[in-house]
Amino acid sequence: MKWGIDAVPAPAGKNMADSGVIALVPMKGHSERVPGKNLRDLNGKPLYHWIVESLKRCRYVKKIVINTDSEEIAGDISQNFNDITVIRRPGHICGDHISANEIIAYDLTQVGGEHFLQTHSTNPLLDHSTINGAVEAYFGGLEEYDSLFSVNCLRTRLYRADGGEINHDPEKLARTQDLQPVYEENSNIYLFSRSSFIPCGRRIGRRPQMFMMDRLEAVDIDEEQDFRLAEMLVRYKAGCGR
């Protein structure tokens, strides 16, 4: 079962969601591909402010926790957001090769609560209404699923590195709209419980639910060109009054 962005969760999910989630946002000071991106100006404010402001508008987010190794980021948080909990990242989970799951595992030793939302500072277009919908879908699906992650739906011809086809038959050349869809993890939304995370040590559990998003809203800044695309989209939305 897959939830679309416009899907309406079961009423039980909405009611359960009122218990709330804790938002976890890991944030490094160093970035290999886009230097200083978390504090870099995006249409008048630091990049990470965008996701924080979206989270603060979510009806189901009861607490925001930012894990950082940067004194500069911690200082900016204390200056601009007095209601955010900052976790100073210890040395053993610092560096470019530490996974998000390792950081989450540490965060769970520092904060209470059972249900968590993990997102990134690099998702500036992620809207609070989409997060609300994902939380409702997560709670609505807990009898069947143990976690939720957001995806982009792809209907395009995909290949492996050796040139082998993934989702199509070159002898038939079906129209792309008729291809079997493939889903791309887009790194915007992860929802899980303490109970689902601890046994397997990962944010995507053993029985995950996929939550489809609009691909433009799901822009994740990994490269310089992603930052430029996000700038254009933010300005477009501002011009449309949205």
Comma- or semicolon-separated keywords:
about 240 residues, alpha/beta, Spore Coat Polysaccharide Biosynthesis Protein SpsA, Chain A, 8-stranded mixed beta sheet, two-stranded antiparallel sheet, 7 helices, about 30% helix, about 20% strand, globular, disordered N terminus
* Largest sheet composition: 8 strands, mixed
- Given helix and strand content, the structural type is alpha/beta
Biggest sheet, strands in spatial order?
A: 1-10-8-9-7-2-5-6
CATH architecture heading: Alpha-Beta Complex
Shape: globular
Percent strand equals: 15-25%
Range of helix content = 25-40%
The count of domains is: 1
Radius of gyration in whole Å, from Cα?
19 Å
The helix/strand series, from N terminus to C terminus, equals: EHEEEHEHEHEHEEHEH
Description:
It is a single chain. With 242 residues, the protein is an alpha/beta fold. It has a single domain (2-236), classed as Spore Coat Polysaccharide Biosynthesis Protein SpsA, Chain A (Alpha-Beta Complex). Helices cover 31% and strands 22% of the residues. The protein has helices at residues 11-17, 47-57, 71-80, 100-110, 128-140, 194-200, 224-239; strands at residues 2-3, 21-27, 41-42, 45-46, 61-68, 85-88, 115-118, 147-154, 182-193, 208-212. Strand 3 (41-42) and strand 4 form a beta hairpin. Helix 1 crosses helix 5. Residues 1-10 have low confidence and may be disordered.
